[in-house]
Write a structure and sequence with these properties.
globular; 5-stranded parallel β-sheet; 5 strands; about 220 residues; alpha/beta; homodimer
Chain lengths: ~220, ~220
Amino acid sequence: MQNVVSLTSGGMDSTVLLYFLRDQGIQVNALAVNYGQRHRKELEFSKALCEDLGVPFEIADLTGITRLISSSSQTGDAEVPEGHYADENMKLTVVPNRNMIMLAVAAGWAINLKVDAVAYAAHGGDHTIYPDCRPEFADALDATIQIADWHKVSLYRPFVTKTKADLAKLGTDLGVPFERTWSCYKGLEKHCGKCGTCVERREAFELAGVPDPTEYA
Amino acid sequence: MQNVVSLTSGGMDSTVLLYFLRDQGIQVNALAVNYGQRHRKELEFSKALCEDLGVPFEIADLTGITRLISSSSQTGDAEVPEGHYADENMKLTVVPNRNMIMLAVAAGWAINLKVDAVAYAAHGGDHTIYPDCRPEFADALDATIQIADWHKVSLYRPFVTKTKADLAKLGTDLGVPFERTWSCYKGLEKHCGKCGTCVERREAFELAGVPDPTEYA
């Protein structure tokens, strides 16, 4: 594998992936998706970091379909739930079919660029809440993407057996500037420390036993 | 199957599908996709017909990703090729991964609406040029969509073994107003009669032995 389109959110998982790919000598084209998130802070974080690294960066603007998939609190007016991802109310953060839509767009760009794969940072901690984060879904999508065009593109998901704590450790080893990644769903000045992604983020650094450079409110 | 999201382009195939579904008592939600086509004529045709039929109609605006998948003459500045679809130069009309992107968005809306399936009008004549029209691609995508969410959505493609001539015949039997469908890639006042879709359209009516109400330039 020589070159990829890599989905990036500005969060810690996809940023570790970016550094992991570059460490393996793979040429990366970063794709962020604006699917109508409440705030664009994560996109700005992602863009700034890619620019500093010299990584080509594009935003796929999917706000034109937000209305169709707006049941989620991430795109609508519902309250952002606080608590751990494992809680039932975290299901409110599901955007219907988000991963398939993002990966299909990424595959379109990958086919256009004639690169070898679409990379994304799905990991072992994702799949209890989100049906489209499960390994069996990724396997089925991989099989589909591989035959979507005469130019073959695969779906590369090197973190699928890792935990978020593993990624905190790996990123620390690779020199990822975690203070330049953004997880919080609330989009305030600092990470709130209380929403689902913040709770997971803190926990990952703690479990990995590595420093957490995040400033929490 | 009680209700579906059905992809519609304003062309003859997807309009026959619309009438076919309604004839079976299936409740239809029509989804047109604006992926940066040169002209919006086909969207206007589709919208007007759905409104007259009382079918809920939405446009998924994907123009925010056009730049990423712009190698095609359908979205860029290249000349629209004339001739038969079977010609090599018709490959210029391929939009990378268009079907997967459109069907992934349709599945997102279907999950949101909690309907049973996404329907689309892929038929047996499509698959020689477009890799993402092949039955094996549709089968793989169906398997993926079915596990994309806890609410199961299937991919319904009742025309996959039919030819375009079969659809001309079926549509005539179902009373489809073909004069209110639009195929031509050129988007002029009348169908040009010469581009790939016009050639296929004329041929379908001829082979079916049914009247072609289309006015060609």
